[in-house]
Amino acid sequence: MHWTNKQDQALRERAFRVIPGGMYGHLSAAMLPEGYPQFFKRGKGSRLWDYDDNEYIDYMCAWGPNLLGYGNPIIAEAVRAQQEEGDVLNGPGEVLIEAAELFVSLVTHAAWAMFCKNGTDATTMAMVIARAHTGRRVILVADGAYHGSDPWCVPALASTGTLPEDRASIVYYKYNDPNSLAEAFKANKGEVAAVFATPFRHETFLDQEEPDLEYALTARRMCDDTGALLIIDEVRAGFRIARDCSWSTLGIQPDLSCWGKCFANGQPISAVLGSDHVRSAAGSIFVTGSFWFAAVPMAATVATLKIIRDTDYLERLINSGNVLRIGLEKQAATHGFAIKQSGPAQMPQILFQDDPGFQLGFAWVTECIKRGVYLHPYHNMFLSAAHTPEDIKHTLEVTDIAFSALKKNRAIGDGSPHLTDAAMK
Question: Cys-Cys link to 365, which of 88, 109, 327, 375 (CB 3.0-4.6 A)?
């Protein structure tokens, strides 16, 4: 089938008339090359279809929520059964307790769980709990790290409308730099309520970084020494690194962890998990939401967590990512390109060397998109357990063709779009 985006363009024009800018938030395709689909009609397994009926092997997984495959039948049946019983009622169902019990049983540091809707809900709730527990105000956050879209944590790119006082008690340190973290503690002696850390550095436009053990140990030790809480933001990486909190692979347990995206395989729910010594503070704060206690996402959580606990989903994720990474490295070298593949293979970031405007990246992924493989030029991607060996094989066939096309276009200079410096700030 010939690739086209006529229907997508028509939808964008309609949206522009009734939605500011036509689209908003991190799902906006406004900064992506022309032709990237903005609207999607359906998904199944590892595949997505847009409104022009183009089929894609998807490597964004709804920006993370798709862990086990779109429309996973086990989870779909749990959703259907709970929907027949009820979803948003006057109070939660028993499934709330079951979801909390399962979650706590999987995550070593956790003694309790509280559920909400979005990753930002979870990180903001964790911040409030830390302040309630310690009676302090300062929160240490790694410079450039993404922890959500509230005024205290929204990235500079989207900070219009926020005020300096929204971040008056947020102090920044350098990720993976134990000295920088220690200096932040020293400069705010007796005032630090918590340290936020991501499982690994996963910032847009940049190579990803695995956590340095000394940095992680320093974070844990300084929290212990000062009474501050260590908070791991698992919203993006949770259950893609381990069947536990991601820093458990380093032998380090946090006091609080924030979860979202994939633990209900696409149903809208997030969570804060905490150690027992923080239980009283968590019970003292007031947080709520009209849809936070909906039963259908809880049922999806129970079904998903059982699959996480009982199957080899994680090993398959990692294996698929490694096969893809090795194949891409060989292809790039064969065609004369130097690419940088960073972070966990199951959450790949793929950038080109000497490509400050992402011109090569834009052109390459555009060639892939038009051949049915959905990649992203500057954000980390995601694999799901639904990606099969055949999917990876076909993906590599497409990426090889894309590298070849890129090489030809590079030789003649095709004027591919690129990101300006201002757009990346």
Answer: 375
User: Which of 275, 292, 310 delimits the end of a domain?
Assistant: 310
pLDDT at 423 over 50: no
Amino acid identity of 35? Answer: G
Domain that holds residue 200: 73-310
* Cα–Cα distance for residue pair 161/163, rounded to 1 Å: 7
Whose structure tokens read 């000062």?
Answer: 226
Cβ partners under 8 Å of residue 385, min gap 6: 67, 68, 69, 311, 313, 316, 317
Pick from 287, 251, 290: which is nearest to 272 by CA? 287
Domain boundary among 310, 338, 364: 310
On the CB side of 396, CA atoms within 13 Å amount to: 19
β pairing state of 256-259 and 229-233: parallel
* 133 membership: H or E segment, kind and range: helix 119-134
CA angle in degrees (0–180, nearest 5) for 409-7-33? 30
CB 185 within 8 A of CB 226: yes
Query: What pLDDT, in 10s, does the model give residues 250-302?
Result: 999 999 999 999 999 999 999 999 999 999 999 999 999 999 999 999 999 99
